[in-house]
Amino acid sequence: LAHGGGGRAMRVLIDELFTSVFKPDSAEDQARLMTPALQQPGARLALTTDGYVVTPVEFPGGDIGKIAVCGTINDLAVGGAVPLWLSASFIIEEGCDIALLRRLVASMAREADAAGVSIVTGDTKVVEKGSCDTVFITTSGVGVIAPGDDLRAEHIRPGDVAIVNGMLGDHGATILAARGDLALSAPLQSDCRSLGHLMQAVLTACPGLRAARDATRGGLASALNEMAMAAGVSVELDESALPIRPEVRGMCEILGLDPLYLANEGALVLFVPQAEADAALAAMRSVPAGQGAAVVGRAAARGTVPVTMRSAFGGTRIVDMLVGEQLPRIC
Amino acid sequence: MVTGRRIRVRGQVQGVGFRPFVWRLAARFGVSGEVSNDAEGVLVLGFGRDLDGFERALRTEAPPLARVDAVESSGCDVARRDGFAIVASGGPGAETQVTPDAATCAECLDEVRGVGRRAGYAFANCTHCGPRFTIVTGLPYDRAQTTMAPFGLCDACRAEYENPADRRFHAQPVACPECGPRAWYEGSGAGAGNAVTRAADALLRGEIVAVKGLGGFHLACDATNAQAVALLRTRKRRPAKPFALMAPLAVVARHCGVSRQEEAVLSGPAAPIVLLVKAGAALPDAVAPGQGTLGWMLPATPLHHLLCDAAERPLVMTSGNVSGAPQVIGNDEARATLGAFADGFLMHDRAIARRLDDSVERVDPPMVLRRGRGRVPGTLALPDGFSDRQVVAYGGQMKAAICLIKNGRALLGHHLGELDEPLTWEAFLQADRDYAALFDHRPAAVACDLHEGYRATQHAGGLGLPVMAVQHHHAHLAACLGDNLWPLDGGPVAGIVLDGAGLGTDGTIWGGELLLGDYRGVERRAWLAPAPLAGGDAAAREPWRNAAVRLAAAGLDPADRFHGKPVAMLLDAARRGINAPLSSSAGRLFDAAAACLGLCPDVQSYEGEAAMRLEAMAVRCEGAAAFGDGCRIGVDAVFRELMSDAIPAPHRAWRFHAGLAQAFASRARALVAAGEARAVALTGGCFQNALLLRLTLGALDGVPVLIHRQTPANDGGLALGQALVALAQMESA
Ligand SMILES: [Fe+3]
Ligand SMILES: [Mg+2]
Ligand SMILES: [Zn+2]
Ligand SMILES: [Zn+2]
């Protein structure tokens, strides 16, 4: 793949690779959008954007294209929005394999279809070798929040329960394993998936749903810290309730990593009033992305720190935000 | 000639019976006038013929718990008056000093063991002894602001309290069975007998008893009963960490050698745990598995004296806590959390105002391992050359302790523990508030570690004060200099810093360093050849990790030694730099050496276990030759020798210690010989190792050497060093 300005080769490439798969409605420079849901009084638009960078770009359970679609859908979904439209922008390294790009685009289309989302506009740039690593993708997403739904962390109250939808750390562990050689590989798959259907199921079943966050970079620990601080509550996690695969746990033990900080691409945590916990669990388990739903903790009145975790032996420790690189502290 | 004089006494002079002491002296020297407490200490206005003798006696005859730092006098026109009065403290902030808790004095013990009204009374105390810092809830220090407030004085106690001739004059916690706290026992067994005898009976039956002490609960059992000790280990999930022991001196001497100096420290008012070399009758190995020393303390309160008298045997006295959590201090909290460990509770109804662990010390060579009950809030003098600026320092992450500096003295706070534990973090915040109030402290700057992942460092950044981040090992060195009163302009020293891990100025993890410099700054002159800390903090828990990377570096195959360990994965992750920062840590080098010799290679059940076992193994064959002596101190050859089965393991253990000591000592010696350094300072957590310390001292024979005496060489002393570095840098700025 040769980089360049607006040459003929580029246009052919874009036409063939992207437009043929995503099929935009118009050839204009902007997508023009409307949906009945938006016409209801009190409905609101939700807009989000995110850049995606991952090495390697393909890994067990997904690829950068799938993450770029799911990640943005999830950022809409955890706000209570029904995700509808996406844009996609590609920065492609000169020399990138066309077959790889084809696979990524197909993966994006497949994921968008499954989530009921259209990729309505996009852009591509090819940059000099070394200016980026294979391919970077930025997606923006638009969704509609139904009248009356208002999820936000400030709504969390003491006594609410924290529920996750499934296994934690699969994505982070998969990426680490995929980067290492055989010695580090374990039969792991990224949890990369979209959570739109799951969130709609919970919204329907739990009128009291307070807030939800996808636990991506920084893991569950960081998502909970943000939520607890915003809400002015403290959250206590129960270590023995955390759904973590033995393979992930084992890998974390060897690498000295804490699975609470591993990135996820299909995990979220939400807070519901205690009385709606069972309804939320049932709703989550009714969709594939929520099969492993589990109560992992509880909010309490604000204490000295936002998040703590109680171990199986009764000890407790503070669970911090991830601040940069974790350097050893044991002297 | 009759003259008037205004005499100011500074030091630890409040709450220790100083004013009645002055009153008695005045009578003896025929001095009239008055004495009072104020924010600066004690003030005497005296009028008489022999004021010189009176002033001299103030210094030389001070009561046991007093420490007189300065006596300053000037002439004054005191209105001549008849007699000598003790004047009530005036105004707020008049009495600001609180002294450390002190072990029961001989006179109180006689009363408790005698037939008077305090016979058998577990809470007897006087101005020469008793609880202090652990009962203070506010300032000024008087009964209303202690946990003795709910106990109204009976007539007899009030008379003592108000009589300047009585040793209980103004003893705030004065009490008797009529009016003071009481003890009781909760647990099974015959209801007959008092609280103490029921507890003792339970101990003799092999039960575990939670005992409420001065600074927190202990878990006690009969130390001569191997089954009871094993039961305590199982219940506490504490497989091997040595237990502290309590017994009267005569009993201690049956199980360990006790020198005259050791006896003095054991029986001093601080009554710390003292590490003593095993000798004589053995106790079950489970008390301190694999160790050559035992940690002993003498009973420090009447309750403990009575319990030891009734049990008539040494007791295990380990802190009453859930593994990893701080010591329990409340009665309800004890029932709730220690119920799973203890068969019974020896309780009392005097609340503990603040958690204070037992201090842990060694006498020969001298070393403070933990500063707690009996030592804090005692202050340390500052070396010459430092200004009067006020600084607070927040220390490290693992053995957190804070330090406040003011008016030429440093208050190095009590051992708090690991700050990721929520209760310990709360205790940190409480200590910060408490000490600031106690010291009436208004810091101009806050000092902390360079490591932004330390909770204390993050806290320092949020105060709105200028923050001075100090490199970890520079702080260790400065703490050692400060402990030795090395003047600010005393010139550069060579600092041998053998430590666990601290963030270096180059972004790697340091811990085996030869630093050259002083409070103001240091250069890194030599260091152990770095190796990856494979798994970050996991490397500090699992010694095999360190052995694997060192053996691989030395061209040996670690898989041979560590079957069943994921050695290939570990080395792969280390090569890729996945959570494997480079480190020159000496602590991890000890772990690696221990693992090579088969000493807890899998996991350390407590911090320092591998190194402590290595030391205990090495002392069995003192005198073997050192391993080969080598800016990077290579260790590849050392590891090849460590793996050589031709040499008995204890010899290898000893040669490892000796080689490390010599490698650093020879380089430090060279700096002194070249005139670059004026002395050598030994600091860092590894110098808790008595063998390493002795060998290093031996290798530095003839060179001036500074070692820690009153402050821990481990991170417990870090805050003092940080504060001194910050102060020194503020001076030069
Ligand atoms: Fe240290
Ligand atoms: Mg995002
Ligand atoms: Zn006494
Ligand atoms: Zn009384």
UniProtKB/TrEMBL annotation, chain B:
Entry EC number(s): 6.2.-.-
Q: Which UniProt keywords apply?
A: Hydrolase, Ligase, Metal-binding, Transferase, Zinc, Zinc-finger
**Where does the YrdC-like domain start and stop, copy by copy?**
193-374
Q: Which reaction does it catalyse?
A: an acyl phosphate + H2O = a carboxylate + phosphate + H(+); C-terminal L-cysteinyl-[HypE protein] + carbamoyl phosphate + ATP + H2O = C-terminal S-carboxamide-L-cysteinyl-[HypE protein] + AMP + phosphate + diphosphate + H(+)
Q: Which Pfam families match?
A: Acylphosphatase, HypF_C, HypF_C_2, Sua5_yciO_yrdC, zf-HYPF
Q: What does this protein do?
A: Involved in the maturation of [NiFe] hydrogenases. Along with HypE, it catalyzes the synthesis of the CN ligands of the active site iron of [NiFe]-hydrogenases. HypF functions as a carbamoyl transferase using carbamoylphosphate as a substrate and transferring the carboxamido moiety in an ATP-dependent reaction to the thiolate of the C-terminal cysteine of HypE yielding a protein-S-carboxamide.
The entry's protein name is Carbamoyltransferase HypF
User: What organism does the record attribute this protein to?
Assistant: Salipiger aestuarii
Classification from the root reads: Bacteria, Pseudomonadati, Pseudomonadota, Alphaproteobacteria, Rhodobacterales
